[in-house]
Task: structure prediction
Amino acid sequence: MPARIFLYVIATIIGLLLLAGVTWSLFQKELMQAALIPSHSFETAQPLAPDAWAAPSMWQAHPDMGAASPAEWLPAGQVQSAQRPAAMFFLHPTTYLDRRHWNAPLDDGIANAQAAVRLRNQASAFNAVAAIWAPKYRQATFGSFLKPGIDSQQAIDLAYGDVRAAFRYFLSTVPHDQPIILAGHSQGAAHLLRLLRDDIAGQPTAKRVIAAYVIGWPISVAHDLPALGLPACVRADQSGCIMAWQSFADPADPSDILAVYTVTKGNDGLPRTGSAMLCTNPLNGGQAGNAPASANLGTLFTDAVLEPSTLTAGTIAARCTDRGLLSIGAPPVGIGGYVLPGNNYHIFDINLFWANVRADSSRRAQRFTATHRTPH
Result:
């Protein structure tokens, strides 16, 4: 039932977005905000204790869960690696769509069940090389991202406070000389950007980072990237760098993303208007050039309730466009139903290139091990 309820809400949102007619064209933003943004003020909440994440129940995925961890899922034909040199901190995307609260209760059954689904689809791509830690956090509700404002920002800040505390617990628990991989998608990527800026850039921890996968969230090359402490990945054998992309089929219409991107300020305090978004191509290790479908080692398709199912190679190409989107060409066959307006394949950002992400993280980990000596 939780999965059906969540998917019903997702389908309703997409249906609303696709509605035609004069009323919708004139009032689409107002209708979306009325349906998804809480009508009451932000509910003040206290920070959780720094050791809150010592409790196993505070993790969506944790190495001690073993095979029960959703991040340990693998498609048919894939074999789990016995040697995993890295520890990974993974931040799941928004799975709380309720307008009753600005932030998800930690025990919300629907949000937690859907977080597990996203971990099976996304975090699983990294389990060949890393033991995966994915914290529960009081994520901001979906409506928080529809309209900038004090309440929305407070909800996002509360979620980030949880993420930051969980990351500090993670660092205090894993071996101090173990390499780490960072990854987040959508809301998780937004929090990861702040984490890179606040707790990693210029710190000893940065020397331990194999790579950071900041996926499904716009990053300004000019105004955001310099403050993150790591460069963009431009080679397949590079470590200590950032991979980032936003997937669109042709014809792409990123106006919803650009509407927010262009009116907000970057890490340097300057408007992002007119600046290019970071796009690293997951099929060729970050190079901005075209990569044919033959370079795609495997797309992870999903079933009707978004559970991961089959892995199929050679079906989807990718190229970075001039404005920083990742184009996958014509809409692919077999992926639909949850595609956002503008041919935005946001939900499938990792699924589209699942096997390449798996190979990419393994390759970068090998490179890191060969060329870096972690701090003692």
Q: What stands out?
A: The longest helix spans residues 150-173. The chain has one domain: 2-371. The longest strand covers residues 209-215. The chain has seven helices and eleven strands.
